[in-house]
Amino acid sequence: MTEPWNTDTPKVMTLPSGRRIRGRGLRYDMPEGQTPTLAVHLTDHQPPAPPWESLWIPWRDFWLPTDPMEAMRTLRTAYDRAADERVEICCGGGVGRTGTALSALCVFEGMNPKDAVKWVRQNYHSRAVEVPWQRRFIRQVAGATGSGQS
């Protein structure tokens, strides 16, 4: 077990379960302070490996993961590990794909997809989940996991 994210760390949100997850944009400098123990990169090309463990979900900007089922498994791994590790989810700008992934984690918490998007927009970024097919992916996560309702 590692020390969790500090609650005052920028872009860290605390899920209802108490898990803390950081979302961020890879285009921006690494925030000061704590570093993740696991990063999940949502990008179209595999990024350079950071000095901590990382997982990659192939995912083009404004689109969906190349392999939605594999993306769900990877996001579930991130969710599970966030119980006692510093996990971050990141894409280029830290808004659309990251917000979609964070909404999927909220579905793992038991939220229905609409509430998950609303919650992430209120607690992370107001423009999270940018396009309709990203909302459809969150509904797909709910259907695949049996969590939430449409």
Describe the structure.
The protein is of the alpha/beta class and 150 residues long. The protein has one domain (12-145): Protein tyrosine phosphatase superfamily (Protein-Tyrosine Phosphatase, Chain A, Alpha-Beta Complex). The protein is 35% helix and 17% strand. The protein is built from four helices and five strands; from the N terminus they run ββββαβααα. The protein has helices at residues 68-81, 96-108, 113-123, 132-145; strands at 12-14, 20-25, 38-43, 53-58, 87-91. It has a five-stranded mixed beta sheet with strand order 1-2-5-3-4, covered by helices on one side. A hairpin with a 5-residue loop joins β1 (12-14) and β2. α2 (96-108) packs across α3, α2 runs parallel beside α4 and α3 crosses α4 (132-145). The longest helix is centred in the middle third of the chain and has 14 residues, at 68-81. The model has no long low-confidence stretch (mean pLDDT 89).
Task: Give a quick summary of the entry.
The protein contains 4 helices and 5 strands, in the order E-E-E-E-H-E-H-H-H.
